[in-house]
Amino acid sequence: MPSDLALAVDLGGTKVEAALVDSGGRIIDGSRFRRPTGASSDSEQLSGSVTGVVAAALGTLPTGSGLLGIGIGAAGPIRQDDGLVSPLNLPAWRDFPLTELVATTAPGHEITLRMDGLCITLAEHWVGAGRDSSNHMGMVVSTGIGGGLILGGRTVSGPTGNAGHIGHVEVAGFTDDCACGGHGCLEAVASGPRSVAWARAQGWSGSTGEELAESHVAGDGIAQAAVARAGRAIGRAIGSVTSLVDLELVTIGGGFSRITPELFDHIRAGIDEHTSFGFVRKVSVVPSALSDEGPLIGAAALVHRADILD
Amino acid sequence: MPSDLALAVDLGGTKVEAALVDSGGRIIDGSRFRRPTGASSDSEQLSGSVTGVVAAALGTLPTGSGLLGIGIGAAGPIRQDDGLVSPLNLPAWRDFPLTELVATTAPGHEITLRMDGLCITLAEHWVGAGRDSSNHMGMVVSTGIGGGLILGGRTVSGPTGNAGHIGHVEVAGFTDDCACGGHGCLEAVASGPRSVAWARAQGWSGSTGEELAESHVAGDGIAQAAVARAGRAIGRAIGSVTSLVDLELVTIGGGFSRITPELFDHIRAGIDEHTSFGFVRKVSVVPSALSDEGPLIGAAALVHRADILD
């Protein structure tokens, strides 16, 4: 019963999705399902959402097809080898056995769990804007800031599976309180909500990232300063990371990354501010080439591109 | 003509050394030679120092022995694949063909060039305090701050060879000018000279790291604050790095790291300040187990432990 389909599962702070994905990185029409998660959900509700989308996606498996395997991308932190997840924004789940839950719903398949940030990086590397680089960080700038690393052509997930937490790399000069308990982390400075909060503190009257984008287009000075501040901070953090691991490429997706193309000019300025070292300034920073399918494609890459997993 | 000896070369900002090192990581008695380098040296003087120590060390090769190969550790930045070095503190050399120079003095051998920070990490991994970890950052805290990475049991040198520049990871809350052109880099905050300068700015009257150590032992409040400040900053940077690459172990050597064992308590406090994430706080931080032979042992590891080079 040969098949080239993987079951992809993406668990995030507001929703969980599942879909079937072929060996070319294409989501099979009609196989994608979504259910809510959310910080106020209890463990049973979260479990119901996960098993619901997994069962629904599996139910669309063409007659006679088998699965190559199951890939799960989850918001971190995780304990990769034990299959446990503790998503920062899903407090009901701490060291929750997600791999086991999925195995119960879809028994008999190999399951691979990684952080969602690594999955989006794999997706860009496989079929997106990272195809030409073996030394690549993928980033998501949205409600939070996350990412993943491919170094020397292979993923870096680390001994616990938590490598890639770019949102918790510090940025010089900042001291903003972070949800992780620290201060001056990139996520605490430059996420969508933090940029909105900063603008409001300067006197801007909106309340969402979408409104901030509109104000930016309209030439509002505070909105422009907020975008510059976020971009510079992102660039500085990319500078630190490139100093450390000699990146060639950074791909950035997520809602707030699309606030305006000018964000990328500010990111470039932040990298140049970080250092004059040529090996750091060489790093390219480009927008994600994937739509909101990226996380699912990346989860499927855990199966289809298992050859480059560490 | 079998042999288990490697020729190790370590090029730094104040000196260059060479020695023969056996397959157990031991420097052969009488084979170690040192000559000065220094920021005021011209290119010819630097070349003379390098060829001098290389020829002297080679001259001690036992009759009938051959070399397994030559390993060179150099202060960065470097261009690894081209064999070029641009040590920040040796301005006479920018993209200087160091590998070619050594090949001229010792023809017929395979030569491997890496950053000195990677070499000290390899040395700790091979025969020092890093033997039990596959996810390890080695650091030197001295006139500057440098380091190297071993992830998943293999070195990470990066596409240009410059991975490991931990001294140019930013630390939140600081804005000190860095020699790299940036601000708030760890090296600009916590190196020996910067810690001395900070203490002097607070009213302390000494002028060297050794004097700062003496004042610390004597209970001087400014000296204690300077050590705490450096340790916290080092810990914060280790926190950023562990967030990014999920380290298990950090080994730290270099003159300023030995100022007082209390430095390591402040480093631990800095990591805990950085975040409450368990996967970050898990990281162990220990002193180097090697003497000042570490850089040469590490350069030799480029030959003897070529199996784990990326």
Automatic annotation (TrEMBL), chains A, B:
InterPro entries: ATPase_NBD (IPR043129), ROK (IPR000600), ROK_cs (IPR049874). Gene3D superfamilies: 3.30.420.40. It comes from the Bacteria. Belongs to the ROK (NagC/XylR) family. This is ROK family protein. It comes from Terrimesophilobacter mesophilus.
